[in-house]
Write a structure and sequence with these properties.
The complex is a heterodimer of chains A (194) and B (131).
Chain A lengths: L7 E5 L6 H10 L7 E6 L4 H12 L2 E8 L2 E7 L15 E2 L1 H9 L5 E4 L3 H6 E2 L4 E2 L2 H7 L8 E5 L4 H12 L4 E5 L11 E2 L5
Parallel strand pairs in A: 1-2, 5-10, 6-8, 6-9, 9-10
Antiparallel strand pairs in A: 2-4, 3-4, 7-11
Chain B lengths: L3 E6 L4 H16 L3 E6 L24 H7 L5 H10 L3 E5 H6 L12 E3 L1 H8 L4 E4 L1
Parallel strand pairs in B: 1-2, 1-5, 2-3, 3-4
Helix pairs in contact in B: 1-3
Classes of the chains: A alpha/beta (194), B alpha/beta (131).
Chain lengths: 194, 131
Amino acid sequence: MPEITADMTLDCKGLACPMPIVKTKKAIDQLDAGQVIEVQATDQGSIADIQGWAKNTGHHYLGTVEECEVLKHYIRKANPNEVNEEKKYPLIISSDELQKKLSENEKVTVIDVRETAEFAFNRIAGAVSIPLGELEHRISKLNPDDEIVVVCRTGNRSDMACQLLAGKGFKHVKNLESGMSGWNGSTINYDSQN
Amino acid sequence: MNTKVAIIASNGGLFDAYKVFNIATASAATDAEVAIFFTFEGLNLIHKEAHHQLPLPAGAEHLAEGFQKANIPTIPQLVEMAQEMGVKIIACQMTMDVMNLKKEDFIEGIEVGGAVTFLDFAKDANVSLTF
């Protein structure tokens, strides 16, 4: 089971509505875009509330894990420009093309550059988790001659990762178009491995 | 464009206060712009002394213990949070005159206005609520 790490942990245990939401709002204001917060709550209503809150504020709700009656909600702070950033890396691969390669057992390494919490809740089978921030110092573990497909949530972080890899002499790197948001193949999620 | 939430608070009990301030703080935390218009008994909810000891409805006094056990914030705490997050609090001038109340009788940071002050905010609100 992949480990989930968060940049900040917020304790809302024992608090009732609307406090988990109010405290989450205050806490997320302290984070940088792209960072992940873990909100611990015991209020069952917080499962629906946190999702509704994320939907309305534009932050990215990743999922919830329940452990010993504590709900751990994971949310990634959105970057206001995330959706509009210009793509620069020219080589892309569509969801259909990648699915075809995987189903035909072509030798292709899928690298998922999202945060570990995002990876844990929803990912392509066989994908390797290397958060974008760690890519540079884990690059020596990768083979520059391999065929590599990089994936993130929408295709922006993976675009940066592709440029980084190409700059280090990786020859066969492609960016998965639209990332997980455009992926229509099967995925592994947190529940299915419990 | 932010969501706008317009609330009228016209009752002065503890239940009313929680309905008003829970919705207000939750909305503000969800980046909505919130204004509450306090009128008639609703003025109790922002009255300096009264909002510390709002009454439970007749027959529901036994719930006082439940409020403590549920570990929910007090009304003054909720009011403070609401103000911190920019919830606009408007006291109804007309009712204040009728009840002989001054702006100084209320918590800090409120506005005093008439019906149009509220309507001006509420006319393009996405959510309008009356408690």
